[in-house]
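Progress against Task 2.4 (sequence-to-structure conversion) is shown through the following example record, which the project officer requested during the mid-term review.
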Amino acid sequence: MKTTTAVRLPNSQARRLFLQKHGLSEAPKGPGKGDDLTAVIDRLGFVQVDSINTVARAHHMILAARRPAYKEKNLKHHLERDRLLFEHWTHDASVIPMTFYPHWRLRFERDRERLMSRWRTWQQNDFETKFEEVLEKIRAHGPVTSASVGEEEERSNGGWWEWHPSKTALEFLWRTGQLAVRGRNSFQKVYDLTERVIPKPYLDIRYEVRETVDWAARSALDRLGFATSGEIAAFWALITPQESKDWCLAAVKRGEIMEIEMECADGAWRKVFAYPQTLEEVPSLSEPAPRVRILSPFDPALRDRKRTERLFGFHYRIEIFVPEPKRRFGYYVFPVMEKDRLIGRIDMKALRADDRLHVRAFWPEPGVRISKGRLARLESELSRLARFSGCATVGFEADWLKS
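Structure tokens generated for the chain above:
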């Protein structure tokens, strides 16, 4: 019986392709504003929003890693002034190109039933009775924050999610599309009626479920380069694993995608899907730029921790919630990339009162030698990050270089 040999993607080529898709292979240049910023975010698909400001907030670090000229106000203009982005959920809270908004209606519909059932049990505070009250306040008086509604209400006993009923109602109405985030003040979400925030052309577009499933799967695979059906589903967190699996099987039958084997960092081979045209690009991909980049832990290239470990052999976990004596590294350490390799992690903090980016420790990965050239590239990146975080100098602990 005749057998066919599967197409194989060596690990070095897989890393190069993945980083090219995520804008981390070429030399970082460009204004980081206007159409250039729009293109960067569209290429990534979304930028995760996070409140931790150890050096700079995640969304700003993600964009600055690709565009050193980027300024924080540029994203604010895109989101709040020009309405080129909207804020909602993928795997977490993210800013997303406005052109994708009509596809999020599927998320709104599915979240309505899922969250209603779950939050009734979790919150136990009759938040449903606050829907019309919250909406009427916004209609009559304009945008609100969670601090400007429900001032006298008791908080739930949900641990650090201590939401009062009106806050829960705000979040529910946002998650299900009746409200939208028009901006943030001191990182606090400002909610308004959706029709006041989302441009009308995007409100008028409607897609069938099958159309959104097809768009979500196609666009995810394009941005990942290669992926399992589970990774495709998880990219936007918009469609179910089964919908993704069914799409992949049908697309293979149509000859639109291929099932290939991708080599992991440990030498194992894993079956994944890819577009034939994507594989045709691989031989012509240029070698990644010879520079060091310090990445946000929430960078889109790293957010899937299992994929990161398979592809780069880099095990990473955030230790924010780990008691200090049990931490292996630090409260919030940043992955460090050189060319197509993750070479270590660094613990640092912007001490703005002292005008200094303070480096506590750098742990190189096993087998990574700290040569003079590598150290110079790392220190150059630290100087850039210091300026980006508003600090004039970089300071180091005496024993910051770990073995």
